[in-house]
């Protein structure tokens, strides 16, 4: 929902008041991280398909609840006597009462003993420490046998991580904005954001007790079992491995098809970690010593060709990327195993962390290999090394953001930087942030010539000044509809007119490098193929870096061809026509 944040806050208006969607979601890092549970249970996934409906200031609780019940019971035919609902049970700290409105609405459809009060953790949805939020109402289904239901009521197992008593739909009622102070303020309008897991819905509709028993996963799992020469359901360890591989290939394949290649940093590392976890389970429990997982891409693409055609269209490319990663990690596994042979009978904490950090060995893989060799592993020491790394990362990532303080009339900034590098500007609002233990200020002007970081090009630097002082602008970034200017200090007087001046020399060198990235992109597509797409870039006054997708390292000959093409185009000194274009119609949500 982050992409719709401005609609909820009232900063912009959606051209569609009502939206329904399906989206592919990853839950492998950050606040929602299910990776270590995947395969060990029957209902967590690295990637799942989220179905949802949205209201941007249109309908609210009454309609959302009635329609949800109608869809689940009358359209999908789920048994009413196996459904439970939860409502927000209130929170004293936030001074919020029980959501009696939702409770009364639910009484039209379910008996009161099936309406449960949920905690803030389970029934108050927030996108983060700040931003739009509100109470939510979950719908749970009990898929146990009649005999099990007689022994223990389903309401006693709701939100208790029972594999057959699971949440299938969450109705989020977004009506507050969480400020930096922690206080809640009402939003200008009330909104709805719902999320229903497709895989769990299939489990409920098909009468299964595991997501992996549905036709979403069974073709992949049967293929894996046949080629591993095992029978699913006969051995707990091989069952986990089969589930891990069937789940992980979905996340990896779609991420690559959507443009994210495995790498050592950022989102790319998440994809690499998922794939390596799958390789490791296949290697350790199913005896796949050679690359195998890439063979699943064809099966998955064919299975979902009418639903997600983008994977079917890029099937060969995705297969090659997965294959290259498998080969690479299997080599790494081999080197890591040789490294272990040099250890004594005890693998120390730092040594276990080295295997994790250098060779990509999760701790459980190190433990498995150690047991096979009669070694012991210092798990406490490993966790201490991990804690040190997390502490270092936490310090690097620490950022505190204050609330905006208005100086003048709040309005969208006017950008004039295409035509001029100087302008008379007034400060509209500012806020204080703390990043890496350094205090900075963010300023928003009514008019600005400063280009905000975009398309890989870094933001402009320069200064603002009046008769009394000069404040240096160290960076410029976009935040939703705002152009935000970074400064180390605030002007003594925030009112009045400032002259905003961009560092022209730095911008000229930066824009030249930006143009070169487009030349480089065209040359890469000419030499390597049309599949090459930009996946990121860094452009400043000194260097350019262009990230792109390709399934193998470039050869020296390919690099030379690209360089020749780019240099030739630069020497042609092609005339540049500048035009500012406008959309012919409003973009659809």
Describe this protein's structure.
The structure is a single chain. The protein folds into four domains: 2-212, BirA Bifunctional Protein, domain 2 (2-Layer Sandwich), CATH 3.30.930.10; 228-396, no CATH class; 400-499, Elongation Factor Tu (Ef-tu), domain 3 (Beta Barrel); 508-572, Threonyl-trna Synthetase, Chain A, domain 2 (Threonyl-tRNA Synthetase, Chain A, domain 2, 2-Layer Sandwich), CATH 3.30.980. It has 589 residues and is of the alpha+beta class. 33% of the residues are buried. It is 38% helix and 25% strand. It has 17 helices and 25 strands.
- Evaluate the radius of gyration: 28 Å
The second-level CATH architecture of the largest domain is 2-Layer Sandwich
Number of strands: 25
State the CATH superfamily name of the largest domain: Bira Bifunctional Protein, Domain 2
**CATH fold label of the largest domain:** BirA Bifunctional Protein, domain 2
Morphology call: globular
Just give the CATH class of the largest domain. Answer: Alpha Beta
**Tally of helical runs:** 17
Helix content: 25-40%
Low-confidence stretches: 585-589
Overall domain count: 4
Work out the strand percent: 15-25%
Give the terminus-to-terminus CA distance.
12 Å
The pLDDT mean sits at 89
For the biggest sheet, the summary is: 9 strands, antiparallel
**Structural class of the secondary structure composition?**
alpha+beta
């Amino acid at each position: 929902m982050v992409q719709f944040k401005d609609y909820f806050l009232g900063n912009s208006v959606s051209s569609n008041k009502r939206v329904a969607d399906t989206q592919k979601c990853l839950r492998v890092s950050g606040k929602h991280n299910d990776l270590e549970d995947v395969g060990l249970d029957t209902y967590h996934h690295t990637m799942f398909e989220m179905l949802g409906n949205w209201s941007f200031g249109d309908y609210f609780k009454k309609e959302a609840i009635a329609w949800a019940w109608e869809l689940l019971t009358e359209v999908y035919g789920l048994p009413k006597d196996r459904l439970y609902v939860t409502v927000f049970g209130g929170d004293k700290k936030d001074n919020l009462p029980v959501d009696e409105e939702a409770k009364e609405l639910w009484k039209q459809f379910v008996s009161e003993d099936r309406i449960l009060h949920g905690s803030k953790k389970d029934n108050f949805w927030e996108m983060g420490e700040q931003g739009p939020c509100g109470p939510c109402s979950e719908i749970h289904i009990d898929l146990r046998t009649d005999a099990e239901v007689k022994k223990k009521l389903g309401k006693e197992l709701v939100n208790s991580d029972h594999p057959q008593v699971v949440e299938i739909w969450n109705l989020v009622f977004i009506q507050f904005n969480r400020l930096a102070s922690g206080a809640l303020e009402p939003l200008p309008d009330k909104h709805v954001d719902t999320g229903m897991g497709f895989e769990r819905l299939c489990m409920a509709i098909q009468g299964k007790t595991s997501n992996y028993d549905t036709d979403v996963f069974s073709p992949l799992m049967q293929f894996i079992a046949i080629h591993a020469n095992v029978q699913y359901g006969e051995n707990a360890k091989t069952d986990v491995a089969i589930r891990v591989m069937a789940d992980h290939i979905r996340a990896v394949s779609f991420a690559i098809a959507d443009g994210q290649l495995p790498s050592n940093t950022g989102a790319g590392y998440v994809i690499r970690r998922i794939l390596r976890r799958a390789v490791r389970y296949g290697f350790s429990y199913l005896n796949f010593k050679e690359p195998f997982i890439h063979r699943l891409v064809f099966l998955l693409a064919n299975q979902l060709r009418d639903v997600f055609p983008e994977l079917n269209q890029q099937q060969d490319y995705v297969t090659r990327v997965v294959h290259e990663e498998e080969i690479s990690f299997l080599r790494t596994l081999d080197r890591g195993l040789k490294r272990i042979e040099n250890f004594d009978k005890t693998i120390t904490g730092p040594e276990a962390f080295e295997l994790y950090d250098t060779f990509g060995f999760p701790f459980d893989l190190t433990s498995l290999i150690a047991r096979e060799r009669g070694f012991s592993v210092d798990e406490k020491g490993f966790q201490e090394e991990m804690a040190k790394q997390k502490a270092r990362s936490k310090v690097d990532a620490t950022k505190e953001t204050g609330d905006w303080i208005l100086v003048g009339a709040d309005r969208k900034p006017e950008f004039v930087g295409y035509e001029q590098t100087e302008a008379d500007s007034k400060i509209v609002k500012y806020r204080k942030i703390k990043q890496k233990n350094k205090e900075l200020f963010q300023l928003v002007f009514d008019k600005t010539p400063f280009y905000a970081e975009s398309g890989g090009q870094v933001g402009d630097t320069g200064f603002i000044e009046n008769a009394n002082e000069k404040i240096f602008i160290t960076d410029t970034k976009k935040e939703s509809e705002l152009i935000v200017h970074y400064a180390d200090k605030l002007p003594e007087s925030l009112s009045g007119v400032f002259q905003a001046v961009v560092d022209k020399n730095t911008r000229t060198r930066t824009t030249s490098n930006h143009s070169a990235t487009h030349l480089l992109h065209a040359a890469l597509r000419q030499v390597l193929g049309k599949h090459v797409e930009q996946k990121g870039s860094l452009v400043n006054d000194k260097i350019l870096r262009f990230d792109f997708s390709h399934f193998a390292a470039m050869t020296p000959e390919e690099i030379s061809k690209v360089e020749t093409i780019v240099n030739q185009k630069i020497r042609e000194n092609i005339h540049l026509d500048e035009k500012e274009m406008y959309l012919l119609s409003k973009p659809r949500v």
